[in-house]
Amino acid sequence: MSETLQYRIEPTADKDTVILTIHGKQFYIGKLLSEIFDLHSQNFPLDRIVASLNQRHNANLDKNFVQEVITTKIPTLTKVPTTKKATSVRSFGAINNLERFGILMRGTSFLFGAKLFYTLLSIFFLINLTFLFLLEQPVVTDIPFKTPIIILAVIFIIIIHEIGHATASYSNGIVPKEIGVGLYFIFPAFYTDLTEVWKLSKEKRVIINLAGIYYQFILNTILFILMITNISPQLNHLFFVLATVSFWLAMYNLNPFFKFDGYWVIADMFGLPNLRKQSMDLIKESFKRNFELLHDASKPLVIYAVSYLIFMSYIFYLVISFVISQQQKFWKTQPMGEGYTIWDWIVLAISILVMCFFLFRVYKAIKPKKT
After folding, report:
1. Whether 234 contacts 194, CB under 8 Å
2. Beta carbons within 8 Å of 210's beta carbon, 6+ residues apart
3. Which DSSP helix (H) or strand (E) runs through 210?
4. How many whole angstroms separate alpha carbon 68 and alpha carbon 125?
5. Counting CB atoms within 10 angstroms of each CB, which of 43, 174, 226, 272 has the fewest?
6. Any idea where the domains of the chain sit in the sequence?
7. CB 3: neighbour CB atoms within 10 A?
8. What is the pLDDT of residues 236-287, one digit of tens each?
């Protein structure tokens, strides 16, 4: 390489892998590839790279093998992004330097020991189920400013969820880069940047992935306790509504087919980095080769890929049905759309935009990549 690269190689809990950080991107790569990359980046000649690797590993690596790695793998790692890095969430704003909140996060770090974590997670989950589905619900009452109160409370619940991730990460020695708010596709979303957790073992990563839901269950339990105190019928009803919303938000977060907590739990539990990409590649290649690849791929990946295909097909069906129903409702009620309110036009426009968005996503997923 003719110019000096700025990069960082860090160990992970897995002795055979490392994290390579370069151009603001992180790669989860094997140790041998990282050593070849490191030596090549220092402009060592090929003979010296091969000799150094053979000496370190007491091996007999072939020069052609090392040359092929340098030719095919390293250019992918060193390529400078020409556009802004694509992420699941496009950030609007974020809180950085989370070390400032270290005292607060250390105060609850004891909650994330593996045995205590899974014990409490199970207990709080059962408490949530008991109060929401088995006990008598509070009487519905009118609450002043109910809608804005619930909106603000939902925002608070989501913030608590992200604090759970951040605290669990901090308790394992990883300070999150930031907590922020942005857009996930077309939906507003809060997020916690947990890029550095790849250094940890998969067991610890799974705990961090579940920590947001864990905090929500704890919050819900507090709301249930406040209901028991019976402060007032209005507050009882409000606490129940908030706990219900929080519970279903937690369940939604466990959906493994969107890049929410459930997705990362599956990816970390079965050691499948880039799970979405791997599953999409498996589906596309399987169609090309009459499903021969399904016999060779790992069972968790095959199960996820097939489930993902079924789920997204169902979502696509729902979107198509929604768009068609809106179109039919719009044009059949009044000729040429006469006599409609602004809201009717907004719903029609949203249905068309949703349709276009899904078609665009499908096109991006199936179009062949440039080589």
Report:
1. no
2. 117, 121, 261, 265
3. helix 202-229
4. 52
5. 43
6. 7-78, 90-269, 275-366
7. 6
8. 888 888 999 999 999 999 999 988 899 999 999 998 888 888 888 888 887 7
